[in-house]
Amino acid sequence: MKLTKTAKALALAALVGAGTQLASTDVASAKTADGKWLIYLSLSYSGNSWQSEAANIVKALAATPPFKDTVELVEVISGTDPQAQISDYESMIAKGADGIVSFPISSTALNRVVQRGCKEGVLFFMYDATVTEQCAYNISYITSGFGENTAQALVNALDGKGKIFLSRGVPGNSVDDRHTNGAMHIFNQYPGIDVVAEYYSYWDDRTTQQETAKALAAHPDVDGIWAQAGEYGAIQALLQANPNRLVPVTGENSNGFRLALANPDYQAIGLDGVSAGSPPAQSGFAFKIMMEILNGTREPLPEGQRNIEYPLPWVPGDAVKLCEGDKFENGCNTFPEGKVPSSFVTEVFNPELLPELSLASALEGKPTEGAEIQPLPADAVKAAPNEPGINCRQCEAPENLYHLTKVEPTVQP
Amino acid sequence: MQNEKTIASAVAEQEDNRATAKISGEFVTIAAIFGLTFAMILASRAISPSFGSWSQVETILYLSSFLVFCAFGQGLVILVRGLDLSIASVITLGGVLTASLMNGSNEGFLYLVPAILGACIVVGLISGIGVAYFRVPPFIMTMAVGLIVYSLCLGFTRGTPRGYPAPLLSGFMQDKFLGVPAPVYLLLAFVVFGTILQSYSVFGRKLNAVGNNPLAAYIAGLPSGVLIVSAYAMSALCAGFTGMMLAGYANGATLRMGDSYLLPSIAAVVVGGSSILGGQGNFVGTVGGALLLTALATILTALGIEQGWKTIMEGGVILFALIALREQSFAFLREVLGKRG
Q1: Does A206 sit within 8 Å of B302, measured CB to CB?
Q2: pLDDT by residue (tens digit) across A218-263?
Q3: I want to staple A246 with a disulfide (CB 3.0 to 4.6 A). Which of A134, A270, B322, B324 is the partner?
Q4: Which of B104, B174, B250 sits opposite A206 (nearest CB)?
Q5: B316 lies in a domain?
Q6: In this model, does residue A9 exceed pLDDT 60?
Q7: Distance, in angstroms, between A199 CA and closest chain B CA?
Q8: Which residues of B are less than 8 Å from A205 in CB distance?
Q9: Any idea what DSSP says for residue A38?
């Protein structure tokens, strides 16, 4: 009796499977039993503010009407090993995923499984990090020139000369390489700029603070710091070494850093700089584009043109504006001290692309009361340039790869 | 006359040999570790003129204090033939609890500190009971407990640790007393306390006995189970304390704050002359090991070389310290030189 039941279930499953196979030839169709889209959120590791904010944004959007009733979102955390993410992708494909929103662990190792998934009709949307497989969509700020723009801003602040530190990300990571190459493209043009120490801070505040403290022991006379994420730690290390002297620092989007940039006391003792870099909001943007394609309100892009650029946030000290509420409203871009931890990454909101979100979305994955999913503006999707090894294979980078978009040189080399 | 002289010098030599033989091997290793650290700091002047200065020594003492705190606990566990892989997670636990419970205010500071450290001790008790009474291998037991504690931190914070440590704590970490950072005094007091506890107290002697020969200790009537559990509890207490201090230093917590201390804590213990197999060790040696590792990292950070080379050099110096700075090596050297002389 039991056996026949199992056999029946198996046969039924086979039938359903065959049905979805057929259906997947036109864009896609809802595959869960209750008619919802089955979407997987595949993360690398959860353990820093950035990763959890990006994941929370997708969770909050999926719980906002009408997605609340049309999307079944399943979160999977794969750790830091590409092999684990490959096998997680495999099982998502096997379970009949309609779409996978993912932070990819490797830009190349996932290509084969992504390609296989595409053939099964699964939509792949990568945010922040990228894959070089052409059938996946890459939604990333990485091509928007963080490295070169912040480097030029630092050079401008230093008048073209001085000793600087480079506080980098994770060794061997393609994102870290891209940022540093862009920055060195600028620094190399200025013989007066002397990179006296270069260290890896693993995009972490505390590691940045300790590594910067070590570098400061050798070079207490440093003139500026070019940092990737973790930049607030660099400011803490500077203050620890000498509470009466700060130097220009460029970095990413932590709330503590933005508050420091706008602090008149800090400005008076030498702090200057700009906050730019990776916005967790990319995940929400990726998810919304994917849902519009699934729902048929947006045309899928042809393969080979699926790299979409997320605009680079750019907030110099004089542009820091405190938010009064729980959203980015009236052009504000930073939260008052105490409202969020200093390592909180501020760029979780985007009033144009993601008006549905509020602070509770980013911190806890909760939908905003009364919010409904708004369609993306017509001009929201902007193609990203090719970058070999980052978002394409066997392709050529444009000649002006490192051209400046946010800042003009004020000093000539 | 000639003969007399040789006899006299031979006698003198013999006496000399006896004198060196009186110095314990442990002392030689510890002195060599501190000597190497000191030499490295002096030699680093060649890299940067600011090196070799008092302010560099201050930075090294300051940064190594975190490693010293957690390596003390690790050393006790290694002493009783164990290994504590959970300290990274317990450091995170201490840091996360400090930031979230204190929440930027001094209110309740006096009872929050023991409460947070108490929570960490509970973690150590669980590891210790698993190892001592359920005979789970320490490697597996502490790894499992570490994973569970880390996941609890992840769930508790939802990925974003919030809050700030009490201003009393963060203020202490920034404070200077007579021109020296306050945590350096704490470090010195801790070293004295740790040395007495490990080498000169009854408790420390008992731990040594259990590590040296658990069977003999058992026959001698020592409660080896209780002693092993207390070593793990001490380790968790030290790790939690490290996390608390780190949160004060960084004015907040991150979930990965403990990661960079796990392997260095083991390395500091072993480089400092303790046996990884247990039963032998001295906390002063561990402190030397921690100072050596921190000084090395500080100097390497300032070198403008590729990350790969930095890591290779780091591994090379650790190996050198382990192999060359052993009393056996010195005995060998003495023998060779003696023969030549």
Answers
A1: no
A2: 889 999 999 999 999 999 999 999 999 999 999 999 999 999 999 9
A3: A270
A4: B250
A5: yes
A6: no
A7: 6
A8: 250, 252, 254
A9: E
Res. A15 pLDDT band, cuts 50 70 90: very low
Nearest residue on chain B to A195, judged by CA atoms? Answer: B304
Task: Answer whether residue B119 is part of any domain.
Answer: yes
Indicate whether this complex's ipTM tops 0.90.
no
Give Cα separations from A240 to A45, A110, A177, B3, B175 (angstroms): 31, 43, 29, 67, 9
The answer to whether residue A318 is domain-embedded is no
Neighbouring CB atoms inside 10 A of A151's CB total 30
Give A-chain residues touching B249 at CB under 8 angstroms: 206, 209
Residue whose entry in the numeric block shows the structure tokens 């020969």: B213
Q: Do B252 and A343 touch (CB under 8 A)?
A: yes
Asked whether residue B221 carries a pLDDT value surpassing 70, the answer given is yes
* CA B191 to centroid of chain Cα atoms: 10
Residue A130 belongs to domain spanning? 18-141+280-313+349-364
pTM above 0.95, yes or no: no
Residue B262 covered by a domain: yes
Mean pLDDT of A178-185: 95
Given an 8 Å threshold on Cβ–Cβ distance, is B307 in contact with A46?
Answer: no
- Asked whether residue A372 is assigned to any structural domain, the reply reads no
Which letter, b or e, does each residue of B211-237 get, where b requires 16 or more Cβ atoms within 10 Å of its Cβ? bbebeebeeeebebeebbbbbbbbbbb
pLDDT 10s digits, B128-173:
999 999 999 999 999 999 999 999 998 888 777 888 899 999 999 9
In this complex, the residue of A48, A197, A365 whose CB is nearest that of residue B302 is A197
A contacts of B160 (beta carbons < 8 Å): 49, 52-53, 341, 343-344, 363
**Which residue range is the domain that position B116 belongs to?**
26-334
Q: At which residue do the structure tokens 């636990």 appear?
A: B93
Q: Closest to B257 (Cβ–Cβ): which among A206, A213, A216?
A: A206
Kindly give, in sequence order, each residue whose CB lies less than 8 Å from that of residue B307, ignoring residues fewer than 6 positions away: A171, A200
The reply to whether residue A214 touches residue B302, judged by beta carbons under 8 angstroms, is yes
Burial A103-127 (b: 16+ CB within 10 A, else e): bbbbbeebbebbeebbeebbbbbbb
What is the layout of strands, in order, in the sheet containing A137-140? A71-77, A37-43, A99-102, A123-127, A137-140, A307-309
Q: Cα–Cα distance between B4 and B1 in angstroms, integer?
A: 5
Highest mean pLDDT among A330-339, B20-29, B72-81: B72-81
Cβ contact A215–B301 (<8 Å): yes
The answer on A76 and A40 residing in a single domain is yes
pLDDT band at A150 (very low <50, low <70, confident <90, very high): very high
Residues on chain A touching B162 (C-beta within 8 angstroms): 340-341
Q: Indicate if A234 and A151 belong to the same structural domain.
A: yes
Q: Identify whether residues A191 and A209 lie together within a single domain.
A: yes
pLDDT digits (tens, 9 = 90+) for A35-63: 899 999 998 876 678 888 999 999 999 99
